[in-house]
Structure of Phytoene synthase:
Amino acid sequence: MSALGLYRARGHGIAPGDLAHCRAVIRTGSLSFHTASRVLPAAVRDPALALYAFCRLSDDEVDEGGNKAQAVLGLGRRLDAVYAGAPGDTPEDRAFAAIVARYKMPRALPEALLEGLAWDAEERRYESLADLNAYSARVASAVGAMMCVLMGVRDAHALARACDLGVAMQLTNIARDVGEDARAGRIYLPLQWLREAGIDPEAFMADPTPHPEIRAMVARLLGEARKLYLRSEAGVPRLPRRARTGIYAARFIYAGIGAELRRQGHDSITLRARTGKLQKLGWLGKSAAYAAGSALMPQPATLFAPPLPETAFLVDAVAERDGRAPGWGIGRTGALLQTLADLKAQDAMGGQQGRRA
């Protein structure tokens, strides 16, 4: 039986009301993914909507909450409950628990996402592009790897290319949001790049302006993303046939944001790159054409490129090797435990200072 046939036979186990809630969350909160998801087969689209709704809720709670440390620690407790089979009483948690159980989602993947959110709560900055890739692996490639699990894909080469796509999409997001992040007191541009340009991060955040040097950094991020977008295409033919259009669509829609940034002179401080409905329809058509032709194309050598060093742990968490699948419930890396411990200490210190005040 094919992977998609297996999905139909089993179903995804998500309650209809919870799925409707997740669909509404994505429709209002993530237009790019909502557009791409419309051309996924229902057997993949429905659990993908539940996955993205849970990830979106998690991201929003950390980004928008008054106490980021508490938000991350709360997410850790919710994840524990999901893997214990006793999710919290929210549609996102119940839907996510259903797909964790149905698809045996390796715990290392949502825990990688949680670690990335913890880095956000710490307001961590990134010294180098490699460090930024490590962050992108956690907040974006982990989701791409989870999508592969939903599609029944555990091939190491396909997983590596899915992780490439995740990093490319996150680098595009960072390039688009330089000004918005700076005004919110955040900076994701590699500190090495800023030092080389003679730009002080604190001064830039206090007065974000589209200096030529900052525009050059935006262009550099987009260049890195473009290489990964191109490499990611090699993995799409290894996905279930009916899912390929949707994944190509995600690739082209997000790359289109980068194209808009280039058209506005790489100014992501005074301008915000936006794409329109007609553009998205065009990319959907292009995606369908690519998907139709993918079965006829020979496998490119880039399919077999090793994963980025920063995403290799995600591939290892999912890939079947020598006929053995990794333990789906194993997680809690030492790095994550240390990050959560640091957040607990940070939150406790903040509470003590508040009481003294």
